[in-house]
Amino acid sequence: MRLKIKTSLLCLTVIGLLSFLACEDLLPPAPADNEVLDGQMEGLSATQTRLFLEGDEAFSEVFTPETGLGAYFVTSSCISCHSGDGKGHPSTTLTRFGKWENGQFDPLTHLGGGQLQNRAIAGFQAETIPVEANGIAKFTPPAVTGLGLLAAVPDATLLALSDPDDADGDGISGRVNYINPPDFFSQLKWHLPDDEGRYIGRFGKKAAAIDLLHQTVNAYKQDMGITSDFDMEDPINYAVSAQQTDLVADHEIPAATVQSVVFYLRTLKAPIRRNEQEMMVQLGEQLFKDIECSKCHLPTMTTGISDIEVLSEIQFHPYTDLLLHDMGAELNDNYTEGIAEAAEWRTPPLWGLGLSPDAQGGNYFLMHDGRATSIEEAILMHGGEAAKSRTNYSELSQTEKEAVLAFLESL
Predict the structure, then answer these.
(1) Neighbouring C-beta atoms of residue 329, cutoff 10 Å
(2) Distance CA 199, CA 335 (A)
(3) Closest by alpha carbon to 379, among 280, 317, 287, 282?
(4) Are the C-beta atoms of 375 and 366 separated by less than 8 Å?
(5) pLDDT of residue 245
(6) Most CB contacts within 10 A, which of 41, 143, 178, 300?
């Protein structure tokens, strides 16, 4: 009897194992690391990995009115704007507004600016752009991978790269954007304020966020209507009432949750290159430099000393200088943040560019507002300081253009 039972158990085990192996054969293989944007940096400790996973979970949380969503908001989760940690889609694009008057820009905070909350929970009325606004811009959410490396570049590096008066005469006059810090900002040793107590911004389309805590707190409040210990004031629809109204007591998430998301963003891996050894890719990389795109889309940067070892003194390849550049009249949305002019935009990192369609529904939506639906279309929209590079690209042969595009898709 015991022998029969043992035999039966053995048979069931074998059948189960064979079934598992058969299912394994039917499952698609896991994508290679260089085919996806999400994933943690190599070298994290067990404790850091736990913190990363906690932040990943918080980044994916979908809020409801019962957990603090709104009352006015744009989206209900971080991940909805950054699918797979990649770029956003036109459907998740943010609207910013303000008013120019006598040469001065007013973000119209007393009327709900600078960001429109175009959705509201039941019983509340979503915001609309006030009639006073004469500067309106669309911001497509960026990819969030590799941000910890960008955050760890010292201010001194950015100041050394800047050339606001074009002293070298090359037609490129990148400069930093100085931002008034929020109350919760903590200055690190490498932060270099100006004479007015403003700090260098580096995140966002206009480089309006100083660090990842600044960026994350703003996103929770402005995008989801979620308050935290860092900012206890709910978004208000001033067209309806000047009173704060919300279903959940503030704060709606604790500081620990915000910090876990910040840690997650700091330790997301950088995008990994693909097809580097292909001849067309290598030709395109050289042509990218020859036509002077790399003057703004700087291939290589180096971090300073960091409290996270894997971020400390690391050379990396983001293809940005994190500076503001005048992009010409066609990209002037009559909107600004900090000291940036309306036509000035921060150089976006190009790493991960070739994987953008994976997060954007299979298509490209490039430039600050997603108006370009191909890499070449984005190149041809460059004006202002980048007009020379645009002309240089246009004068390439068709094969050379294809090589440049192959290189950019390899990033």
Answers:
(1) 10
(2) 20
(3) 287
(4) yes
(5) 75
(6) 143
16, 20, 22, 24: CA torsion to nearest 10: 180
Task: Look at residue 244 in the predicted model and tell me its pLDDT.
Answer: 75
pTM of the complete model: 0.92
Residue in this structure with the two tokens 């590799």, named with its chain if needed: 146
| Cα gap 26→17, rounded to integer Å | 14
pLDDT recorded at residue 369 = 97
CB 383 within 8 A of CB 391: no
Strand, coil or helix: 270: coil
- What are the helix and strand counts (H, E) for the chain? 11, 12
Do the Cβ atoms of 301 and 62 come closer than 8 Å?
no
Please choose, from the candidates 344, 369, 299, 367, the residue with its C-alpha nearest in 3D space to the C-alpha of residue 174.
344
Which is it for strands 119-120 and 72-73: parallel, antiparallel or unpaired? antiparallel
Residue pLDDT, tens place only, 123-174: 999 999 999 999 999 999 999 999 999 999 999 999 999 999 999 999 999 9
Task: Measure CA of the first residue to CA of the last residue in the chain; give whole Å.
Answer: 65
Q: Please list, in sequence order, all residues whose beta carbon lies within 8 angstroms of the beta carbon of residue 399, skipping any fewer than 6 positions away.
A: none
CB atoms within 10 A of CB 103: 5
Rounded to the nearest angstrom, the gap between the alpha carbon of residue 1 and the centroid of all alpha carbons in its chain is: 66
Query: What are the residues whose beta carbons fall under 8 Å from the beta carbon of 32, sequence distance 6 or more?
Result: none
Torsion of CA 136, 216, 111, 134, to 10 degrees: -10
> How much is the pLDDT for 248?
87
Angle, vertex CA 114, rays to CA 109 and CA 117, nearest 5: 100
State which residues of the chain have pLDDT below 70: 1-27
Query: What digits encode the pLDDT tens for the residues 90-124?
Result: 999 999 999 999 999 999 999 999 999 999 999 99
Selection from 231, 401, 399, 404 nearest residue 319 by Cα: 404
**Dihedral-angle region of residue 68 (phi above 0 means left; psi in -120 to 50 means alpha; beta otherwise):** left
